[in-house]
Amino acid sequence: MRRVIVIGAGAAGMMAACRAAECGARVLLLDKNEKTGKKIYITGKGRCNLTNACDTEDLFANVVHNAKFLYSAFYGFSNFMAMDFFERGGCRLKVERGERVFPQSDHASDVIKTLEKKLKENGVEIRLHAEVKEIVCRNNKIAGVILRDGKKEQADAVVLATGGLSYPTTGSTGDGYRMARQLGHTVVAPAPSLVPLVVRGAYPKELQGLSLKNVQASLISARNGKTLYKGFGEMLFTHFGVSGPLILSASSYYGEKEKKNGCYLKLDLKPALEKEQLDKRILRDFAENQNKQFKNALGGLFPNRLIPVMIEVSGIPADKPVNEITKEQRQKFVSVIKDWRLEITGTRDYQEAIVTRGGVSVKEVNPSTMESKITQGLFFAGELLDLDALTGGFNLQIAWSTGYLAGESAAG
User: Fold this and answer.
1) 20 and 381 in contact (C-beta within 8 Å)?
2) Are residues 110 and 238 in the same domain?
3) Which one of 102, 127, 328, 386 is most buried, by most CB atoms within 10 A?
4) Terminus-to-terminus CA distance in the chain, angstroms?
5) Last residue of a domain, one of 321, 347, 373
6) For every one of its 412 residues, what pLDDT tens digit does the chain have, with 9 covering 90 and above?
7) How far is CA 325 from the centre of its chain?
């Protein structure tokens, strides 16, 4: 019987251990934390958006880096297979807006309970407080691992599923990158992703706490004007910049190159209206408030807290009577509403990032098995790999799919 050691009891690691045991391997699951699934507990604000109920084919469009690499993984263990896995394991599911899938209970702990139950049913040995110091390799072939306390464990295969660097308090401290490098693998520089963006200027601080719904945001390169991302949804102003689901998705496309060359966020505050329609709407508002000052005629257009900022951006004096505002001033105001630009200076750090972009280069991993092309018997799964996706359950689906495939392949 093959012995498989899985390092990391997160989403990918637990799925890999389940599948390897199901396929007949003797499995040891190691984690340095005091409990399994520590990061799962806090995903989706504790509700755990565990996958997305879109067509399986549509999963690829939501993967930002290296989507093609996931072909075998996604079709070998699809989003619908993942849903079936949890439902059969006793975790009832529901589908919400954007096809996001959650436990019916709204408790991430139910996802972990299902995985733990499956691990137990399949006879997986779970060892917590067990930190791996190094993976042992002989003649380019996996031989086992050495733990931090000096204990050695033999293995025919090792699945490395230690996660990235996001939420370091959950144990994601980059150990997997170190071990992969020691075995000759290239690690694409990690960076925070699905993370709030930092904006230059005082506007975000003035608007701190204000949430805007139904806005369109585009991430634009300052160097060549290229649109890197365009999305529609909800955003939030913070003391340092912007956050919210729309911004987190945009951040997936903001890398070192964008930081170096400059980048800005283009906001369309009224995406449902074309410029001409918006101009007519403003004319109507002005007609209804013709004896009022500009600052007192905007209540129908914006939330109260946004009005002073939009007046400042427009360049129209706040106390100017609306019947004195020229057509040119009004049209400039329309342009500002449809194209408000905020300069991005960077992202927040790993403490606030949902996932890590970068990781073990997928060029050195066989996409049909998740096995290393360098070391026989070494397999990778989850966020440790250079794979990341948008919000909506897609990153956890990457974990389930790659974990399932790695576990199956490791069991031989």
Assistant:
1) no
2) no
3) 386
4) 10
5) 347
6) 999 999 999 999 999 999 999 999 999 999 999 999 999 998 888 999 999 999 999 999 999 999 999 999 999 999 999 999 999 999 999 999 999 999 999 999 999 999 999 999 999 999 999 999 999 999 999 999 999 999 999 999 999 999 988 878 777 788 999 999 999 999 999 999 999 999 999 999 999 999 999 999 999 999 999 999 999 999 999 999 999 999 999 999 998 889 899 999 999 999 999 999 999 999 999 999 988 999 999 999 999 999 999 999 999 999 999 999 999 999 999 999 999 999 999 999 999 999 999 999 999 999 999 999 999 999 999 999 999 999 999 999 999 999 999 999 999 9
7) 45
Q: Are residues 291 and 376 in the same domain?
A: no
Token pair 């660097």 is found at 165
Residues 97 and 219 in one domain: no
What b/e sequence results for 153-182 when a residue is b if at least 16 CB atoms lie within 10 Å of its CB, and e otherwise? bebbbbbbbbbbbbbeebbbbbbbbebbee
Q: Domain check: are 115 and 233 in the same one?
A: no
One domain, residues 141 and 87: yes
Inside any domain, residue 275: no
How far apart (Å, rounded) are the C-alpha atoms in residues 163 and 175?
A: 9
Task: Tell how many helices (H) and how many strands (E) occur in the chain.
Answer: 13, 21
Domain limit, last residue, from 347, 367, 384: 347
Q: Which domain holds residue 290?
A: 286-338
* Residue 401 near residue 407 (C-beta atoms within 8 A): no
In a domain, 281, yes or no: no
Which of 204, 131, 221, 162 shows the shortest CA–CA distance to 360?
162
Domains in the chain, number: 3
Does residue 131 sit within a domain? yes
SS3 26: strand
The domain spanning residue 332 has which CATH number?
A: 1.10.8.50
Do residues 244 and 327 share a domain? no
**Strand 26-30 relative to strand 125-127, pairing:** parallel
Rounded CA-CA distance 369/12 in Å is 14
Look up residue 339 and give its two tokens: 């194209």
